[in-house]
Amino acid sequence: TQLLEQSPQFLSIQEGENLTVYCNSSSVFSSLQWYRQEPGEGPVLLVTVVTGGEVKKLKRLTFQFGDARKDSSLHITAAQPGDTGLYLCAGSNNYGQNFVFGPGTRLSVLP
Amino acid sequence: DSGVTQTPKHLITATGQRVTLRCSPRSGDLSVYWYQQSLDQGLQFLIQYYNGEERAKGNILERFSAQQFPDLHSELNLSSLELGDSALYFCASASEYSNQPQHFGDGTRLSIL
Questions:
Q1: CA A32, CA A28: separation in Å to the nearest integer?
Q2: How many angstroms separate the first and last alpha carbons of chain B?
Q3: Do the beta carbons of residue B85 and residue B64 sit within 8 Å?
Q4: How far apart are CA A104 and CA B105, in angstroms?
Q5: Which residues of A touch B95 (CB under 8 A)?
Q6: Span B50-69, pLDDT tens digits
Q7: What is the pLDDT of residues A10-47, one digit of tens each?
Q8: How far is CA B80 from CA A61, A101, B20, B46, in A?
Q9: How far apart are CA B109 and CA B101, in angstroms?
């Protein structure tokens, strides 16, 4: 069974600070996705990474897929209150079956 | 707006009852996924359908069942409900059956009294 771990579980920071959250597994994933979920809503896709070592940028968010495709990180520069939410990573195997979600990192950015 | 529609938004019922949750995928998406999200379990994958056929099964209880119809909408049936079934149930759709980004609906909040 493929499992994803995320750290930290909770993170509370001040507006303007930088942060990094992590997604780790002992298994190899063919692709990995990051989602953000706000209260009362469904997760919203931020990015998909598929190549080991890949780095993708989305405005102030930088996503990296580990070389071995077992881990990923999300770095946010100059966090804003609008970044507040639950950040979930999700991975699938080569067959795209049994999409696995990590437990999430709950981020709170205080003004 | 993800384009995925889930109804109803809220459902309150009693133990032992049966409910049906409905999902309409994004236009053009053939794959539908069902998830359960509770405070202590996170987002748990239940089942996936692709173009009307079951593709993958996760931690879905025998009391639960799903199907995808020819018009690609999907229904999740929950029966003999227990207090522990109270959760948010999400549907997501994707264009293909594997390795494609999923687009989530806003969920159905099920409360068992």
A1: 10
A2: 31
A3: no
A4: 18
A5: none
A6: 999 998 888 899 999 999 99
A7: 999 999 999 999 999 988 888 889 999 998 889 999 99
A8: 44, 27, 12, 17
A9: 23
- Chain A residues inside the 8 Å CB shell of B35: 101
Nearest to A19 by CA among A7, A30, A34: A7
Q: Does A50 touch chain B (CB under 8 A)?
A: yes
B58: nearest CA partner in chain A: A98
Structural contact between residues A83 and A64, judged by C-beta atoms closer than 8 angstroms: no
Cβ separation A102–B92 shorter than 8 A: no
User: Six-digit token pair at A9?
Assistant: 């579980």
Distance (Å, rounded) from C-alpha A73 to C-alpha A66?
8
Query: What's the one-letter identity of residue B18?
Result: R
Chain A residues touching residue B106 (CB < 8 angstroms): 40-42
